[in-house]
Design a protein that fits this description.
By secondary structure, the protein is mainly alpha-helical. It has a domain of 54 residues. 67% of the residues lie in helices and 0% in strands. It is built from three helices and no strands. Helix 1 packs antiparallel against helix 3. The chain starts with a helix and ends with a helix.
């Protein structure tokens, strides 16, 4: 495998883990699927009380970087 491909793949996996952390650390805005099924009590199990708009903005930036690197990895595989 190409060393550049492996480097980009490691960065991609790091961004994936970071996005999981960012999404789970945000405060839920609504009940979501759990409240529609009758289990609204556990909807804020992973939430952080100090989540701000900056955290949401950082999530969108990470999503953009995630999509760009996913396309870049696809081009490298061809």
């Amino acid at each position: 495998m190409n060393i550049l491909f492996i480097l980009v793949l490691i960065i991609f996996c790091t961004i994936c883990v970071g996005m999981i952390y960012l999404v789970l650390s945000q405060e839920p805005k609504q009940g979501g699927l759990s409240s529609s099924m009758g289990g609204g009590g556990g909807s804020d199990f992973f939430s952080a009380r100090g989540a701000t708009g900056q955290l949401v903005q950082l999530t969108f930036y990470a999503l953009g970087l995630f999509m760009f690197i996913a396309l870049l990895l696809n081009v490298f595989r061809l």
